[in-house]
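Bench notes, afternoon.
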Amino acid sequence: MDIRRAAVHRSASTWQQPVPAWASPERDALVEELARRVLALGTGRRAVGIDGLTASGKTSLGHELAERIAARGRPVLRATLDDFKKPWKDRHLYDRESGEGYYRNAYDYGAAARLLFEPFRSPEATRCALCAIDPLSQRDHSAETRPLGADSVLIVDGVFAFRPEIDACWDFRVWVHVDDELSVRRGAARDQDWAGSDAESIHRDRYLVAEHLYLAEANPLSRVDAVVDNSVFSAPFLTR
């Protein structure tokens, strides 16, 4: 029986990364296995969280998984927690630039719950927003919604995805592993355009400090369903 491909609904944010090109049979097999595990959860709305250190490859994996699940006939909503940060115009009200300040204050979990997670979990809701404040343009996209089907799969990537404020939202949790130094190197290279010579210090002294605090406080690895070692993009593998 032919299965008709379903839609992948994406955020209105300008903070976008393209779906990565096919990389290798090993990567293809890993994405296929993750899709199989998610679809094995059964029918109904299902939420997948993809967490890991900055620049570990969460967004790319989320895009690949979304495409694979849509190809199996399940509609997908694709979001990132970076689209639910507090607006920059309010940054004078709190510390967002130290490691601890970034962990405590950068994200607006109330907005994520109100606009995305609560509608997704409500059987009566037929639409939800995939973006609150665009992290680049700072435009408010909260009124721009996407359709919710009875069998929609929500795939959200982002650091701190399994902290207590939103941890109960997930049906399936994926941790994307790279070591600290690879995270810093990849992140600094990625963010050179906007951070310039400060890119490495931002990743080492802000993001990495925040992530170590998260690991110590929230212990996310104790609750994940799959751990992907993504140290080599073309040769990822499951360690759990």
